[in-house]
Amino acid sequence: MPRTAAATHCPYCALQCAMTLTPVAPVAGVASDASAAPVTVAGRDFPTNRGGLCRKGWTSAELLRSPGRLTAPLVRGDDGELHEASWDDALDLVATRLRGIRSSHGADAVGVFGGGGLTNEKAYLLGKFARLALGTSRIDYNGRYCMSSAAAAGNRAFGVDRGLPFPLEDLDDADTILLLGTNVGETMPPFIGHLAGAQAAGGLVVVDPRRTATAKLTDEGRGLHIQPVPGTDLPLLLGLIHLVIAERLIDVDYVEQRTVGFDAVRRSVAQWWPERVQSVTGVAALTLRRLARRLAAGGGTYILTGRGVEQHVDGTDTATAAINLALLLGLPGRAGSGYGTLTGQGNGQGGREHGQKCDQLPGYRKITDPAARAHVAGVWGVDPDVIPGPGVPAVELLHSLGRPDGVRALMVHGSNLVVSSPNVAAVREGLARLDLLVVCDFFLSETGALADVVLPITQWAEEEGTMTSLEGRVIRRRRALTPPDGVRDELWVLAELARRLDCTATFDTDPEQVFDELRRASEGGIADYSGIDYAMLDRGEAAYWPYPRGGSGTPRLFADRFAHDDGLARLVAVSVRGSARPRPGSGELELITGRLLEHYQSGAQTRRVPELLEARPEALATMHPATALRLGIADGALVELANRNGTVRCRARLSTDVRPDAVFLPFHYGDVQAANLLIGDAVDPISSMPEFKTGVVRVTPLDPI
Ligand code: SF4
């Protein structure tokens, strides 16, 4: 075990708080506790977290020797149970089955599902493995559930998708920050230090149907909380655009010189006068006017979006409307102002740049672009024709599981599909239809428990690599301790499987060598990493992409031009599609799903940390006391939430933080408490983002008062 402290970053969210892990030295004469954390965690000074960590970060070392840690491959036997097996036996079995399925049903009968928590090196090698070793186009990842709408909107407007096109510290001097659908107060608490300037100026504006921890930061004159009807973010933004145009608040020079598309946008918002917006969103016309004037008042102004406005069937258009508003105010690229979207998963940014998306090659290149294919094929040492064409996005891929002409074998890396996917009941059925399910994980997640083969892999503190934070800054993940016996790095797993599948392409297992190959593959692409290397990261250089070879990094984008060929941003007219989302009928409530401070994503990791589980042991359906009284529900009572997609059973929690017409359910739990049992198959037609954030549900007490 290394005995020196390792400067690394948190295993969880995209803020990637810096931390120092120090191995715990054994005490002479004292028997060591096998389940005790083998490292201590200390916050480390870094521009994003300034030494702070949230509760998840402080307790993250508990994961390393958790009793549920997998330390041997598991293979399902004839008795239907998972049994320990040797690595050779498990990998031989996987390779043999993959070969058989491929030869019987074609290469696209094998699918790969990646994750936004994988290091850049793993995400890159997984995309290469799918296309070269498996020859399949069927690869996508859970970032489809997270960032796809924001990414589609950013690409459409700016020609590039980098969550924050500026360092987080830039927010410190802002006078006004508009947060749309993001609860950083719970999801990434150290972030709120960057909101202090806007709070002091009375300019923190939070749009959220719930009175969240973030919304409460606006109390006592520090800003404004706007609580619209769930799912009405798009009309709200169209109304704000209407107002800034009608009241001549737009930055005319900026719009003329740096954008195209104004006339179409002006026409598209003509009908969204404030009183109409009020009738749809419930937000007072006076409040809208106040907000529009505040945003246009000058000084440092930022507009930031999160999953609350993006995880919808109109998520791309809603994010586009937020961008339109920012462009009309002249914010993107202006010093001290800007627009951004807050990436959620640990490597949600890097995870969408290196080729694990169905339509993408490394460097954020389009897989259909002949020049991109030729470049990447050159790095991989193959003919461009060998690289399959575009695959299908995550939800479509999952729909095809076990179907004729669909995916019959699935490899899952860094995802817990039966908790985090929409319509999880259908996903479970699809997984059961498969001929082969292989899951790489460090715990037996709900998805791993259904697998034919489970391969135990290293955790963050046991591996080297890089991540790309929500700022587009590439940072180093460093090894603090030796992995337990029996555990392997995913790079090694992919290389071993590629060899067994007779793939002649190179699959390095050393992260630095993989990163060097990634750099070459990304060179000249949108997300160009070619000028970044481990040595400069280890020296502490702040490396923001694009960072071309021999050049320098780009902390701030858009100062002079946008990434479209003509350098101009696109104002894109969007509209409300009437039937996009069902509205509650009599006796029904709006369902809002979301996150808790104590848990991360599907909870597969955080539900194993005793302190976090004790604090939030179960899903609670939070509703307004008046609603509960009407429905005959007491605080703590068992309730059933049901709609045409499924049923959830959990306890009720009463709070005035939720509107009387809504119920909030966190999505970190599995089985009968899985919020995504209530989420259907509808997706955004542009980004394929599922409608996660709102729905219609009927709530019934199981033990009425
Ligand atoms: Fe980790 Fe995110 Fe918490 Fe920071 S805010 S400690 S990165 S979970």
Automatic annotation (TrEMBL):
Q: Listed GO molecular functions?
A: 4 iron, 4 sulfur cluster binding; metal ion binding; molybdopterin cofactor binding; NADH dehydrogenase activity
Q: Indicate the segments annotated as coiled coil, or none if absent.
A: none
Q: Where is the signal peptide?
A: 1-36
UniProt keyword annotation of Transmembrane present = no
A Gene Ontology cellular component where this protein is annotated is:
membrane
Judging by the UniProt lineage, the source's domain of life is Bacteria
Domain 4Fe-4S Mo/W bis-MGD-type, which positions? 3-66
Keywords in alphabetical order: 4Fe-4S, Iron, Iron-sulfur, Metal-binding, Signal
Q: What is any one GO biological process for this UniProt entry?
A: respiratory electron transport chain
Which Pfam families does the UniProt entry name for this protein?
A: Molybdop_Fe4S4, Molybdopterin, Molydop_binding
InterPro entries linked to this entry: Asp_de-COase-like_dom_sf, MoPterin_dinucl-bd_dom, Mopterin_OxRdtase, Mopterin_OxRdtase_4Fe-4S_dom, Mopterin_OxRdtase_prok_CS, Prok_molybdopt-oxidoreductase
Protein name stated in the entry: Molybdopterin oxidoreductase family protein
Which organism does this sequence originate in? Agromyces intestinalis
